[in-house]
Specification:
Length: 361
């Protein structure tokens, strides 16, 4: 009702309460402890969570690479992402990217804006994209859902994890793993290598480049991961020297033993109670006098490493990250001689373990 249609209040009636103006409302809101807490939470958490979720999707969908090539309008982006029928809904998502500051939109063309968006678009940073994806898809959910999972007695299974994301994010520790390989692999001489849980095949490539006479077998439990390794090894011209196999390396039944067996970042795929038994089975694949090299993130690291440990603790396969001394002890119990650990870089809970198959299995 407009004021022109309002009738004056009858004489003697109580005065209508005056409504506060917008600025007064704002001042009252700012004095509210609840609103202040909400604003501080929003600054500290909501914006970073939204940005990491958006950037994860933007990187994994291919949007960042498209925009790194050149700015593009909605129609051509929709076409290049295979979303021609969904352009309107795509726009709503892209416009949030603009609001978050990761994209810009000028004259109807979207482009990369933030330093982070540009870095994630760089193909050389694929491991960083994988790590971001691992954090937003797996670490974030376990940190959020842990109490509910405990109440519902729920566990994660291998299918809850995307093996190809893990294979990419694992590459973040590439310099550390390569340094550990360099400590045990000679530059010359014939070496038969067995890599258990080869992921992308990156470390097999490193070993093969370090020693041009090296040949071997790369195995991964997850067929899609083994397929990724096979494609990569073919692209790197190594298919002749390294055979790729899918399956549980401890059950394949090889008709040979290997001079060097490597297990990078997968000892935690074996439950703690079964690690000695698994290591015994691994020892049966090592030639007499041959060596096992394990590299692994271990317990006691940063909060983000502990989030990985949490996920593994809530999974129905494998177990938590190893404790350094416990794993050395398990290797010795499995019959490896000279079982020892060494820190590849100071200050990081990333540790290499070696043992020799000094006796008959
Ligand atoms: C965290 S990923 C690491 C991949 C790669 N080693 C790297 O460091 O980038 C662990 C991999 O080990 C594989 N794996 C676990 N247990 C295995 C087993 N018994 N035999 C073969 N592969 C296994 C998993 O399928 C997974 O791809």
């Amino acid at each position: 009702m407009t004021s022109a249609t309002q009738r004056p209040a009858p004489a003697g009636a109580p005065a209508a309460p005056s409504s506060p103006g917008p600025f007064r409302t704002l001042l009252t809101a700012l004095r509210s402890r609840q609103i202040r807490a909400l604003m501080s939470l929003s600054r500290a958490f909501v914006a970073p969570v939204n940005r990491s979720a958006f950037l994860t999707g933007a990187a994994s969908s291919g949007l960042l690479r498209e925009l790194a090539a050149q700015p593009a309008d909605l129609a051509s982006l929709a076409r290049r992402l295979g979303l021609e029928d969904e352009a309107d809904r795509l726009r709503v998502w892209l416009d949030i990217g603009v609001k978050l500051g990761d994209l810009s939109c000028r004259q109807e063309k979207y482009a990369l804006r933030s330093r982070h968006a540009k870095a994630l678009a760089d193909p050389g940073n694929d491991a960083v994209v994988g790590a971001l994806e691992e954090v937003t898809r797996f670490h974030f959910t376990v940190l959020r859902d842990a109490p509910d999972m405990l109440r519902g007695r729920r566990r994660y299974s291998l299918g809850d994890q995307d093996g190809t994301v893990i294979a990419r994010s694992s590459m973040i520790v590439k310099p550390f793993v390569e340094a550990a390989v360099d400590r045990v692999l000679t530059r010359q001489g014939q070496v038969r290598l067995l890599e258990i849980g080869c992921g992308s095949g990156l470390y097999v490539r490193h070993a093969a480049r370090r020693n041009p006479q090296l040949t071997g077998v790369a195995v991964d439990l997850q067929p899609e991961v083994a397929a990724l390794a096979a494609r990569n090894l073919a692209d790197w011209g190594l298919s002749e020297r390294v055979e790729t196999r899918a399956g549980d390396a401890l059950k394949i039944g090889f008709d040979e033993t290997f001079d060097l067996v490597t297990m990078h970042q997968n000892i935690y795929y074996f439950p703690v109670a079964e690690r000695v038994e698994a290591l015994r089975a691994v020892r049966s694949l090592v030639a007499p006098g041959g060596r096992l090299l394990i590299t692994s993130s271990c317990q006691g690291g940063s909060a983000s490493l502990e989030a990985l440990n949490l996920w593994l603790t809530y999974a129905d396969f494998g177990g938590p990250l190893p404790e350094e001394n416990a794993l050395v002890e398990q290797m010795a119990q499995a019959g490896f001689s000279e079982a020892r650990s060494f820190r590849v870089v100071p200050g990081e809970q990333f540790i290499a373990f070696t043992g020799v198959n000094g006796r008959a299995s």
